[in-house]
Amino acid sequence: MTEMSVTEFAKNLRSVFDRIEHKGEEIILVRNKHKIARIIPGSPELTALEAMSDLYSTLSGIAGDTWMKESRINENLKKGIKNPWDS
Asked: pTM, whole model, 2 decimals?
């Protein structure tokens, strides 16, 4: 955990965010000798919703509608998702 002033944080924003993202470092922000905030790294994994959140921007409206319709009637999905490596 690293403490730094808000001024230092603002001057080095990009490098501080790189440290948080790539090194998993936690940063405590200090203003007027008072700790005012703690910045912690986010989860390294995405949920399915996060991973597919921008899918709408890559599919046309028709393709998206077709995908939704087919995914709702797919028999495999009705049975549930199974682990393909489970024997």
From this structure: 0.52
CB–CB of 26/2 below 8 Å?
yes
Q: What is the mean pLDDT of the chain?
A: 83
Q: How does DSSP assign the chain, residue by residue?
A: -EEEEHHHHHHTHHHHHHHHHHH---EEEEETTEEEEEE----SS--HHHHTTTGGGTS-HHHHHHHHHHHHH-HHHHH----TT--
> Given 3.40.50, 3.40.1620, 3.80.10, 1.10.10, which CATH number is that of 2-39?
3.40.1620
Q: Quick: pLDDT tens for 2-42.
A: 999 999 999 999 999 999 999 999 999 999 999 999 999 98
CATH 3.40.1620: which residues of the chain? Answer: 2-39
Residues in the chain: 87
